[in-house]
Design a protein that fits this description.
By secondary structure, this protein is mainly beta. Strands 21, 22, 23, 24, 25, 26, 27 and 28 form an eight-stranded antiparallel beta sheet that branches. Strands 29, 30, 31, 32, 33, 34, 35 and 36 form an eight-stranded antiparallel beta sheet that branches. The protein starts with 18 loop residues before the first helix and ends in an 11-residue tail after the last strand. The N terminus and C terminus are likely disordered. This is Secreted protein. It holds the Pfam family DUF5719. It comes from Acidipropionibacterium acidipropionici.
Length: 473
């Protein structure tokens, strides 16, 4: 070991070098001579300036050459394979007999009830499910599943229908209904353990006293129906926030009555929301807003229409008091156009748009924006793609029916605009891609009025090919 010195020599060019560099230094310059210094012996070095510069040049070259001999660690690591995780979708019980469309890029998926063994079903598929819940499962490596249910009652001018996307389980979300007196919430627990939930309501005057809405249990692999009229018997809009204190759940609002029928899933509050698939030809429209916070918030709305973006009259700045739910009349402002709404707020809010035509209505609920979207449709409909970005988007895609027929989708969607395309009336799988992030929905007017948003096709994640518990989403 080199002896530690109390003070370094002035002009000592080696004092900051690591020991391995000193060893190389000695091999280059030869042995170092030692001279006595009084009672102590001190190591002295004396090299002329030019020689010192030459030595350090040689040392730098040697270190560089040594580094170049070390193999790159990055080059020795193999690229991780792309793995699509498994996913479980829950299709909620319907108030009337329903059909279900289910699809994926994989040739088959597992479809079954909340209990019992699932069956392998070839994709895309359309099956009758009555009024029972259904579960769709993909496993690791399969394409993302997508499914939608459709129930219809009556025919002709008095027909009503409800189309609802099947969703993954979560720990909670918010639903807004226009008439709680004729609505209920269906909560499904797809897991193997009991779930406990709390429900809180807010209306036009603030929080609604909902005694008995805390600590509700939903048994494992079962559904529970909660009539909203028990807690909010009036006909003014209310929002219901469902939270799972234990477990995970899927919650859906089901509406009925003289205004029509609809079913739609819970969503998450946010400061920025997109509501796609607002149908053309609607005779009335109401924007439903709920502020779960403790401070007043300002909401701003922009409509994305065929001719570009515009601010609907009366929706440039909407004030929403804390813990309240309100309805904003948008019928005149939208004039029956096919649009998507872009909602922004100072604080997180919930937002939905109810459109009515004839004896039925449709609820536009929040959806994401992305470059790859899909849905499964029980009876076709009209596709509406809206572009919230600042540049034009080029879209293309295919609607593949259960009988194998295809409908091509392609076009350019200007910034702030909405593109529409009729897909026919057959069940099938719709998938579109875009050069910009877009949002989209499909509406149907063939038997009443109803709509459903497209879902994002989640990107693959890099990692080892591990088995995924199909109960996990």
């Amino acid at each position: 070991m080199r002896p530690r010195r109390a003070a370094e020599e002035p002009g000592d060019d080696r004092q900051d070098l690591p020991d391995e560099s000193v060893a190389l230094f000695r091999r280059v310059t030869g042995p170092v001579q030692e001279e006595p210094a009084g009672e102590e012996h001190r190591i002295r070095r004396s090299w002329p300036g030019p020689l010192r510069a030459t030595i350090f040049g040689v040392l730098a070259l040697a270190v560089g050459a040594g580094a170049s001999l070390i193999p790159s660690q990055q080059e020795s690591v193999e690229a991780a394979p792309e793995v699509t995780p498994g996913q479980t979708l829950v299709c909620q019980p319907s108030s009337a007999d329903a059909s279900m469309a289910v699809a994926s890029t994989s040739p088959s998926l597992q479809v079954g009830g909340l209990t019992g063994s699932p069956s392998d079903v070839r994709m895309p598929a359309s099956v009758s499910i009555g009024t029972q819940a259904r579960v769709i499962r993909s496993v690791s490596g399969q394409g993302r599943p997508v499914a939608t249910t459709l129930s219809s009652v009556g025919s002709g001018a008095s027909a009503t229908s409800a189309m609802s996307p099947c969703t993954t389980a979560a720990t909670g979300g918010t639903l807004i209904v226009t008439d709680p007196g004729s609505a209920d919430i269906v909560v499904t627990n797809p897991d193997s353990e009991e779930a406990t939930i709390d429900v809180s309501l807010s209306g036009a005057k603030g929080a609604v006293d909902s005694e008995g809405s805390r600590g509700l249990t939903v048994p494992a692999r079962s559904s529970r129906t909660l009539p909203l009229s028990v807690w909010a018997p009036g006909s003014s809009p209310v929002s219901a926030t469902v939270r799972a204190e234990s477990g995970r759940i899927v919650a859906t609002a089901r509406t009925g009555g003289s205004a029509g029928r609809e079913a739609y899933p819970m969503s998450q509050v946010s400061q920025s929301l997109l509501l796609p698939g607002v149908p053309a030809g609607a005779t009335s429209s109401e924007l439903l807003l709920s502020n779960p916070g403790t401070s007043r918030t300002t909401v701003r709305v922009k409509a994305l229409a065929s001719g570009g973006a515009f601010t609907p009259e009366g929706a440039d700045e909407v004030q929403v008091d804390p813990q309240t739910t309100i309805a904003v009349d948008m019928g005149k402002a939208l004039s029956g156009e096919a649009v998507a709404l872009q909602v922004s707020a100072d604080r997180p809010v919930a937002a939905q748009l109810m459109s009515a035509k004839g004896s039925d209505d449709a609820m536009a609920t929040p959806a994401g924006a992305g470059t790859s979207l899909q849905t499964a449709l029980p009876a076709g409909g009209t596709l509406a793609v809206s572009n919230p970005s600042q540049q034009a988007a080029q879209i293309k895609g295919t609607y593949t029916t259960t009988s194998g027929k295809t409908v091509a989708v392609s076009g350019s969607v200007a910034a702030g605009a909405t593109f529409t395309k009729d897909l026919g009336a057959d069940a099938g799988h719709l998938r579109i891609t875009s050069t910009r992030s877009v949002t989209a929905g499909v509406w149907s007017t063939r038997n009443g009025l109803t709509s459903v948003p497209l879902s994002l096709v989640a990107g693959a994640v890099k990692g080892p090919r591990l088995g995924i518990d199909p109960q996990l989403s």
